[in-house]
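hi! just following up on the protien thing from before. the input was this:
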Amino acid sequence: MTIVAGGLDYDGCLAKAIQLGGAVSSLPPEHYTYFCCLTATKAHPLLAHFVSKIRRYGAREVVTMISSNRQDYNTDFINGRRSRSVGKDLVVNIISIFSKQLAETVPDKKVILDEKLLADVLNELPAGTVFNEIKKVLFNEDYMSDGLKASYAFEENKILLLYMQAHRLATCYPEETVHFYFYDDRITESRPIGPAISSIFEKHPEFLPSNLVLTLSQYNGQSHIQEINSYRGTGSINYHHDKFYLLVLLKHYKPYSRSTEAISSAKDFLNSQVVKFSPKKGYVHVDAALLVNCLNGFDLGQKPISDLLTGIQVVDTNFLIAPTDRTALLA
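and the predicted 3d structure came back as:
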């Protein structure tokens, strides 16, 4: 059986797949988001490309994931306020819209939106906590919680993000072939991240699980998707990828720390090192040497017996981003 997953960047990529049908600047946030939902086009190249892969492989299930660096509220909020492509919106809402559109386009498939963000991992929160806390801001701009304060370590080239999402998928579907399509506007253009990603997964396919194929796809609003490279993994599934993520960050900030250091007590230290939205201080640089160092002697674990779908919601085609009167909106 086959699973097809889409890891979606937002700014400059998924943002271009939402077509606005009129002036919406005066609408309140919940109306604005639902208006986008009504006017998003199902014929858009990004959606069409993803659907073609679902059909090509006869996927049993389809997964959408946030592969943007908007992995916490602070980053999502700041980018949302800066964005001019989809106004003052948040990626958690737009990916919900996209997933709904996808579910309506392939009604014969089970479409799953993975709500897990790296801020959940860094702060040892249940998967989906930060995602759902961010969505509450849509209805109450004054809302605040510990989930919204949770931060993560910003990584320009998204190598660790893709590693985490690849092993997340393989952990959820260990007996199936997973085709993981990563869509980004900067694979080959505008400070491209593709070369850095390729330098890792082309030279070290063992970093990816053997049941997964990762495909880098360039999209920045053009009329077609350009598939750049595909990498078939040869490694074992890292069932302890959450713990591994903390270890990588520990060694990034403390290169000479022992691998036996208590990873479970890392949250406070790591949060003290993360400088939100500060390229000079807060960004993480991940290379092959760091991953090899962390994997050396690391216990990858065994297939869990418990339910792996925590933090994942099945997209209902009747799902509405916000309860709104359609007649009043379109009047």
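The chain has a mean pLDDT of 77.
The beta strands are 2-8, 61-66, 110-114, 177-184, 212-218, 226-232, 312-314.
cheers
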